Amino acid sequence: ALLGVDRLRLYDIDPAASEKCRRNLAGFGFDIVIAGSVAQAVEGAEIVTTVTADKQYATILTDNLVGAGIHINAVGGDCPGKTELHADILYRSDIFVEYPPQTRIEGEIQQLPADYPVGELWQVIAGTAPGRRDARAITLFDSVGFATEDFSALRYVRSKLAGTSFYEELDLLADPDEPRDLFGMLLRAAA
Question: Which of 6, 12, 78, 88 is catalytic?
Answer without folding.
Answer: 78
